[in-house]
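In this supplementary section we document a worked example of the pipeline. Step one takes a protein sequence of length 193 as its only input; no multiple sequence alignment statistics are reported here. Step two produces a three-dimensional model, which step three serialises into structure tokens for compact storage. The input and output of this example are shown verbatim.
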Amino acid sequence: MPRLTLLYAVAALLLAAGRAIPPPEEAARMARFVLHNCDWGALATLSAQEGLRGRPFANIFSLSDGPPGPFGGSGVPYLYLTDMEISVQDLEINSNASLTVSLAQTQYCKKHRYDPQNPLCAHIIFCGSIVKVDDSEADVAKKALFSRHPEMESWPKDHNWFFAKFNITNIWVLDYFGGLKIVTPEEYYSVKP
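The serialised model returned by step three reads:
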């Protein structure tokens, strides 16, 4: 009997892993789904660098909201950062930022031949701020990031890496024709991807 139970559990996980993306009328679920299925995003800051001060500056960062799989996502975008990075230097002056994640980095858009700019190749824009995680959340962030980005564990220790999270204040979803949909953080965190 335990073997049969194990087979049912494996079958359920396989079905859940292959589930379709949420429908366009479920914007909060779509936002969670896209974030959980993306491994990186474009983080935009206001530059503090000489010659660019005050101008928008976007950079790519690896991220994770939890281990891969259908049940691992918290919805919180975690990042592994160092003060040596130019965007982190911007954040030290002004922690406000936006973060864009897109299904263009997944097989979904490639399979359907959706251009990354096509609204059907869903992307989510988060606005908020970057904050260092406290000790009570560091293990969660570490598990989330290192499960998806194992290379991070071997990055140079003398770079003083730290775990941070994107503190979401606003969410815009573009997943269908007709314009952006606004999702509140409360709606976002109340659903599962």
